[in-house]
Amino acid sequence: MTALVVPPAPTQCVVSGITTRSATVTVTPAAMTSTATAYTVSGGTKAAGASKVTFSGAATAKAKGVDGLLHGVKHSFAATTSNATGAGPSTSCSGTTPLVQVSVSAAPSGVGSVAAKTRTVVAKVTSSNATVQTPSVARTSGAGPASGEDLGAMSKCAASSTTHCTVADSWRADPLLDGVAYRVTGSASDGVNASTATATASTDALDTPSITVGTRTTRKIAASFTAGNGSAGSSSIGLTGLGYTDGRSATRDPLTDGTAYTVTARISDGFNTVAATKATSTTTLSTPSTPACVASLTDSTAPGRLTISGGDQVRLGTGGTGYSNSATYSTLAAGTYVGYARDVASDGHNYNYSAWDACPSATVKAAAPSTPSSIAVGGYTPSLGYIAFTTANAADASSFTIQAPLDVARDWPGDDLRRRDCLRRVCSCSRER
What we know:
- 30% of the residues are buried.
- The protein contains no helices and 39 strands.
- The radius of gyration is 58 Å and the shape is rod-shaped.
- The chain is mainly β.
- 0% of the residues lie in helices and 46% in strands.
- It has five domains: 12-96, Immunoglobulins (Immunoglobulin-like); 103-202, Immunoglobulin-like (Sandwich), CATH 2.60.40; 210-281, Immunoglobulin-like; 294-364, Immunoglobulin-like, CATH 2.60.40; 374-427, no CATH class.
- The strands form twelve sheets. Strands 11, 12, 13, 16 and 17 form a five-stranded antiparallel β-sheet that branches.
């Protein structure tokens, strides 16, 4: 009976089917007189995400599966043959696992109804040997996030999207600040190993609006602006204190003449906004020349009639009511009157006036008193010192003079009579011989 001896070392071991985390190690045993009870493989470097390197396969299987290997390194393995006496010497072999591969590209994008190159970055992350993980975005400066800024994990694009990117293996960040550099970090993993890659992309800066002031009159300002980007639907333009009009052009009418205004134009991509201003003003309404006032006295005796003309507005006296073009003043009492005239300039909203020009003064004379058509003398009472009489057709008389010869004169004592109360008025009565 032949005694058992320790089995010889395997003729060789071969590493095959190698991936970023696994491989197959095949043992080629040497010729031996005894029966092999097991073939074993050991070695390899553990991946960071694995608890250990694991080996699989039946004890007598010559091909052993290896898993949990660190990617991108050369791994050394030892293969042995065992029989009833135990394991024999080992034979070594090695193999190198490839790195987990990942690549990232990123750029601003305007594809979609919401996306704009001033606010959207789209990234593409690919790997040929691992599973792509959700990428993240951050400012290259390390600052942020601003309110509403979409930093951190990116959103996956969907083929059915109408608002943003539609490429399935791409990712988006929106909204972002305009004119800012961002770093996209992408990764891929095989479950125990991972690789990362980065790419930078800068959003476009929103254009500063270029304002043009068009028509300017005493009451109107028309303005517009242009910009190479931004959304026309998110643009607005306005004047100081008068609010904004959506769009990129506006006309304000009516305005105060000779007044300074500031045109403000704003463009937006729906998240970022840029504004520009431009000073302007309405033109000044001209002051008309002072006209020559004309006074026409058509009735110079009270009650008088006077017409004032010669300007766009006229009035009688310094505090009189102003009238347009000309005015006629009737039933004027006796006295001296002065009319005034001035011209008016207007654009339908603003008004400017010339100085008032004074007409030559016009005098209305008092009317001569009426001659009574009859006088009826009442009783004379010497002890009371007055006579009573009435008149007809003398309503405008303010005094009366009774002259001799009259039938009643002989009944009046003395040469003069004092002022008397004659019925409803105070009358001056006198006697002449």
